[in-house]
Design brief:
single chain; alpha/beta; Nucleotidyltransferase, domain 5; 5 strands; 44% helix
């Protein structure tokens, strides 16, 4: 009954305000005119129904500048505190998680942090799945923030650059975050840490936004339309 109630409850006022912020979003503005929140989650695993968020990291971008003085980073205590294979990947121990706040305490702060910003992530649909699953259960709705996927942006940039004769070093066919970081010679951060991965993705986003601008992709609508023309299912 509790699960059914969580799907039928009225959205929390936080989510109502969140939705209102984007009802009249103008996609025709230049990319620097929007605020962005680049986010990443660490999970107990990739099972979309059984696994849980154990860490959220995020950083804001304004005028295409990273706001390092304002970051969001927290561990999250999952319902199940058992050690599993994921512990060896993200190096977060059950003891650390036992002392962390629960997801019901973290989510309102995260929704507030994302206020008025477009969400950015690398393969962001995965992060959004787990975030929205938890948000629906605890706050009665989902995030309304439009989303930008840097994996999709990287694919589009490589296609456009390839037509102009640009050749990429390293592993040019890969869209893995670490490979793209090396390929584009971007600053490196520690992998499998939510905040560090968010920063890594933020640098990739800024690189791609500036490269696409040099190719005539000026506005958010330009990027969205380019994704549609290339058959991308969802860029926003």
């Amino acid at each position: 009954m509790r699960s059914l109630f969580s799907w039928l409850r009225k959205p929390d006022p936080l989510l109502v305000r969140n939705e209102e912020q984007f009802k009249r979003l103008d996609f025709r503005l230049p990319l620097p005119d929007y605020d962005y929140v680049v986010c990443d989650t660490e999970l107990t695993g990739l099972h979309k129904r059984k696994d849980e968020i154990i860490s959220i990291g995020a950083v804001r971008i304004s005028r295409l500048q990273i706001e390092l003085s304002s970051t969001f980073h927290t561990l999250v205590r999952p319902v199940k505190l058992d050690a599993n294979q994921a512990t060896f990947v993200h190096r977060i121990t059950p003891e650390q998680l036992r002392k962390a706040p629960g997801i019901e305490e973290v989510l309102p702060r995260f929704v507030e942090y994302c206020s008025g910003a477009l969400l950015v992530g690398h393969c962001i649909s995965l992060d959004l799945h787990f975030l929205n699953l938890a948000i629906r259960k605890n706050l009665g709705g989902i995030l309304s923030n439009p989303c930008v996927d840097t994996m999709t942006m990287a694919r589009l940039y490589k296609e456009l650059a390839g037509k102009r004769g640009v050749r990429f070093a390293g592993n040019p066919g890969s869209l893995v975050l670490d490979d793209l970081t090396a390929e584009f010679k971007l600053p490196r951060f520690k992998p499998h840490d939510a905040l560090e991965d968010a920063l890594q993705t933020a640098y990739l986003f800024l690189f791609l936004a500036k490269k696409l601008k040099s190719m005539g992709v000026q506005t958010l609508e330009d990027v969205r339309q380019l994704g549609r023309n290339k058959g991308e299912e969802r860029l926003f």
